[in-house]
Amino acid sequence: AAVPTGVLALLLGTLLWAPWRALHGAPLAELSGHQDFQLFLHKNLEFTRKIKGDVAALQRVVCDTFQLCKEEELLLVQQDLGIAQVPLEQCHSRTFQAEACFSQIRDGLRAYHGSLAAVLELLPGHASLVETLQLDAANLSSNIQQQVEDLGMATVTYPSEGRGPLPAFSSRFHHQVGGFFILANFQRFLETAYRALRHLARL
């Protein structure tokens, strides 16, 4: 049983390829040579890769435990649940701005930190991994906030429309599917954040 990486790769390729090709003119010359900024980027690229690995491990647990492995088979249930992807359009749009991208990554990590509570309830036997993931999400969010402040970059707080409390799952199955989509969305979010950090590190 495998995580639906093929679908994920296809989606990401479609969504991100064209916009990322346009980013090489991004207005970041004043930061790109900043030694501390480069150190921050490389350190948090590794951190983001580690978090992605932990999310993938939990996706395999959900697949093995509940036989929920393929996203396309669950899309109708997802519509009923109302679990939306946390936005990261500032990190792969043609109007890429480092401040806005960092702000969205920071806010998204906080949102997923909260959402993972539903996964924790679902997988009590894997509590230590879920709790580590929550701690790592909180730490990465704090790292980004600190770096933004250190560089004197403007912080932006995005409205959290549609990202209120988690839905009250009407059944155990809905809870399981909800956990599946929280992890699938988090993995997509991390992939975009990783690409953003990697892009900045290459400027």
Describe the structure.
It is found in: Secreted. This is MGF factor. By secondary structure, the chain is an all-alpha fold. It has a single domain (35-157, 166-201), classed as Up-down Bundle (Growth Hormone, Chain: A). It has helices at residues 5-21, 29-32, 35-66, 75-81, 98-122, 127-150, 172-202. Helix 3 (35-66) runs antiparallel to helix 7. The protein is elongated, with a radius of gyration of 17 Å. Mean pLDDT is 80; it is low at 1-29.
What distinguishing features does this structure have?
single chain, 203 residues, mainly alpha, Growth Hormone, Chain: A, 7 helices, 0% strand, IL6/GCSF/MGF_CS, disulfide bond, granulocyte colony-stimulating factor receptor binding
Distance between the termini: 39 Å
Q: Which second-level CATH architecture applies?
A: Up-down Bundle
User: What count of domains describes the coordinates?
Assistant: 1
C-alpha-based Rg, rounded: 17 Å
Can you tell me the CATH class?
A: Mainly Alpha
Q: Main sheet? A: none
Class from helix and strand fractions = mainly alpha
DSSP helix fraction:
55-70%
- Per the CATH scheme, the topology name is Growth Hormone, Chain: A
SS elements, strand count:
0
| Low-pLDDT runs | 1-29
Into which percentage range does the β-strand content fall?
under 5%
Task: Specify the overall morphology.
Answer: elongated
Mean pLDDT: 80
What is the count of DSSP helices, taking H or I runs of 4+ residues? Answer: 7
The helix/strand order is: HHHHHHH
